[in-house]
Design a protein that fits this description.
Layout lengths: L7 E11 L5 E12 L4 E5 L6 H8 L7 E6 L2 E2 L5 H9 L1 E5 L2 H4 L6 H8 L7 H11 L18 H14 L4 E5 L7 H18 L2 E6 L2 H7 L2 E6 L2 E7 H6 L4 H8 L5
Parallel strand pairs: 3-8, 3-9, 6-7, 7-8
Antiparallel strand pairs: 1-2, 1-4, 4-5, 9-10
Helix pairs in contact: 4-6, 5-6, 6-7
The structure holds adenosine-5'-triphosphate.
Family: Belongs to the ABC transporter superfamily.
Keywords: ATP-binding, Nucleotide-binding, Transport
GO molecular function, one term: ATP binding
Amino acid sequence: MHNSGPILSIQNVTKRFRNNAGDWFHAVNDVSLSVAQGEIVALVGESGSGKSTLGRIALGLIRPDSGSVCLDGRDLAGLSPAELRAARRRMQPVFQDPTASLNPRKTIRALLAQASHPDAIELEAYAIGLLESVGLTPGSEYLARFPHELSGGQRQRVAVARALAMQPALILADEALSGADVSIRGQILNLLLDIRQKRNVAYLMITHDISVARAFADRVAVMMRGRIVEHGPAGEVLTNPTHDYTRSLLAAVPEL
Ligand SMILES: Nc1ncnc2c1ncn2[C@@H]1O[C@H](COP(=O)(O)OP(=O)(O)OP(=O)(O)O)[C@@H](O)[C@H]1O
């Protein structure tokens, strides 16, 4: 199942919606993008450029009007519901606001158990290991707590631990860092890098903040009004942008 091709391959994907006036517009317009094993790809662009729609299409949450999404070389559109569920485990989302995505009535133990890979048998030990891998040590001290009994940065770490529980090949982080303050953000970025090194997880980082791309992407795709207008190795795109829009995004961020 795990070939050497990309984990995620989005090909010529288009998605249209109706605006308030009832007219169709392209939220995503003929976009192709792939993510290889262990690779960090940043998808950047301003609000409304279509990044989250593309992310939802990649996760199989919405169907494109045309084009295809392949995970491990298999088209999501051709999978049975059971196969689609299995595919979704390989591709875990981490969303912006962990307060909203972590059920407040569940303990950390329950949140992690619910997300755990079906093969995990020693759930308690597995959960502790996950917590420690995201820097919450000793893990056992966090199991009985509820999300509101943690700091914002700790909640982000739990959200990452929960995504890791499924042993994904790819984490799709949609503005996962923009809600956090600067010091937490740096910590979580470092954590994600560390996890990539240990587990060879790939990331698709969806962000309006090009400084996140600068901090850790291997490859950057710049999206504007539903299209990818620039795409290449991070070093090239960020130091030598060819598109005016990329230049304007770069001009808008203070130096890190
Ligand atoms: N279900 C929907 N129905 C109609 N329009 C939608 C729907 N989902 C998104 N849109 C529109 O599609 C466009 C792209 O939205 P999308 O959320 O993908 O952008 P984005 O780049 O992720 O923006 P942000 O950074 O603000 O999240 C926007 O104009 C949005 O209003």
